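Board notes, transcribed. Complex of a protein with zinc ion.
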Amino acid sequence: MLRALAQVGFLNKPLQGALLLAGLAVISPWSAAGALLGAALAVLLGRVVFAQSEIEWAAGLGAYDAALLGLFWAAPLSRGGAPAWLFALALIACLGLRRPLRRLALVLGLPPLAPAALLVTWISIGVFAAFGANFWEFARPPSPSAEELALGAALIVVAMLLKNLRATLAALLAAAAAALAAAALGRDPLSLDTAGLWAFTVAPALFGGVATLLPHSRLGWQVGLVAALIAAALWAVWPLATLMQGLAPLMAPFFLGLWFSVVVVLGRERALYLDPELHQAARLIIAARGAGGTLALTGAGMSTASGIADYTAGAWLDPGVPLASYGYNAFIGDAGSRSLYWDACARFRDASDRAQPNPAHHALAGLRAAGWVRAVVTQNVDGLDRRAGVADLVELHGHIDAVHCLLCGQPAPWPEAGAWWRQVALCGGCGGLLKPAVIAFGEGLPPDAWRRADSAATACAAVLVVGTQLAVSSAANLVARARAHGAHCIFVSTGVIALPVYAGDRILALPAERALPALARYLGVATAGTR
Ligand SMILES: [Zn+2]
């Protein structure tokens, strides 16, 4: 229940909730009592009648709307009698509306906030007006003294500070600016009436955007600032708008400000940035930075958006030819298999040459350059990571542009097309067989690449596994080596993951070209491939 009260101030710890309640009680005892009553009834009713999810309860979100409703209902509740029954009705309506409204917000990619509390309060105000009663009239007017106001505000600020220092300072500045603006507009900045409640607009918009919505991201600051500006503007014009005459702004400027801001700042992909899984993945990368850093291990899914099919899926092989014919032993032992292998590689090389790095490659290059990713190991041989500018790339399976001699190891240029069918793809130095420097089935990994990959795996604190099912044992080994040294994994995959996923791992079930730019933007990295 204290968590629910904490959520009223965008906080989430019981202690923060208690401080917030105490602060509220000092300033406006009836508001505090209302919030407490709302939260308490929601805990009783919500669990039993409105079966809400465990996760929401654990976070205190189950009773959040109800606590807010109680806060708004402070004045009618202070009058006792009939309003108490009406409050019970309003609370039931609020709890009932809560789920569909939250679902609607999530479908639209907007933070759910508490539209049910807002809507039901507006309806309540209308009902009171219809019967000639003033919703805002307290039985005894609340008139906190300057000392009470200061003490209450201090308690609330302490609760906010426990959550996020910088967001609190920013919110205080915003609140001061809003109070000055209110005074300049000739309104009482502390009034709780129609034109008041400014404290529910500007400061929470900033605090909410920064501290709660995207707490580990520069995007949070952008969302918070834009939200605060929109909220302030809405609040200022609210009493002027003819439609809004008599309709208290309550938290509406704050809600609308935050929603508009999310749409403006986060754009079309906003639902992605509000996904807790993305936050958790970013947190792992942030935590890893102070430890051994993050190793990115990439596979075919990285290049899908560049139009390159997974070569292990067989798209490059000749139909009807057994897989064994493309193995290393067949290449050594049989001229026909050798030529088939060259043909398949030539097709893959043509496609790679034509392909362009996609947003996933650019984002990875940005993450690597900014130090969020300390090493990149790829199973891909298409060279697109390198072309996007990924520094110190470890190409575990070689790369398709390289050719080397199997006898003396010297590199060689690609032979002219079809030379292999005439058996002339031979080393100019020693006459040994040339072979594309990519790993065939049954061929050992390049020792140098493996050594670098292995030392990156044993040093890292997190592994970002992108677009690979880890079906190739060398990649699975790297992940196992990293895990043995205490690293957690972030899997970016739309398919099956061929490894057990442990507690503490994160799964972003998204294509690489969406997940990596989102992670990069979240971590404040501007990359060539993002908007
Ligand atoms: Zn040679």
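The mean pLDDT is 84. The longest helix spans residues 82-107.
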